[in-house]
Design goal:
The protein has 149 residues and is α+β, with helices and mostly antiparallel strands. The protein has helices at 15-29, 45-49, 83-95, 104-113, 117-134; strands spanning 38-42, 53-62, 65-75. The two termini are 26 Å apart.
């Protein structure tokens, strides 16, 4: 079976574009979940945590109220891969806003947000294995000259 990659017209290289992308997915599928205060790429994430993305919730007391801030960090690796890989990581981290553990309910929520979630997770793991053994792939589409159709 060949790996099918569809490139979406999504440029999430800037922090604002990434935040907007994640916020749009969250609003589409998890309207009742808490607000996200920060979404960012993290260049140290893959090395330090052996993770591709993290979801953190920080609670603090402000006056007489308990304030909670939620952050999603995505490994910088996902700036240079197909948009579907980024979507898989974002869906995974958003699912942690509702479900903490990697259990049946968690994966049902992931497949609700991305019906092809399991295939995407497999493809990302396959690509990470490729990086480990052969190095990264160049995902940019080949330029087409004027005389080719």
């Amino acid at each position: 079976m060949a790996l099918l990659i569809i490139f979406l017209p999504l440029d999430c290289a800037s922090p604002t574009a990434l935040y907007d992308y994640v916020h749009e997915l969250k609003d589409s599928y998890l309207r009742n979940a808490g607000q996200l205060s920060k979404v960012a790429f993290d260049s140290k994430l893959h090395v330090l945590h052996n993770a591709l993305g993290t979801h953190t919730s920080i609670s603090r007391i402000q006056g007489g109220k308990l304030k909670s801030k939620r952050e999603i960090r995505v490994a910088t690796l996902f700036k240079e891969v197909p948009a579907e890989f980024l979507r898989m990581i974002v869906v995974h981290e958003l699912a942690h806003m509702k479900e903490r553990a990697h259990d049946k309910a968690f994966y049902q929520l992931c497949t609700y947000m991305a019906p092809d979630y399991h295939q995407l997770e497999f493809d990302v793991r396959l690509y990470l294995t490729h990086i480990e053994h052969l190095g990264p792939l160049d995902w940019r589409p080949a330029s087409v000259s004027g005389d080719e159709v």
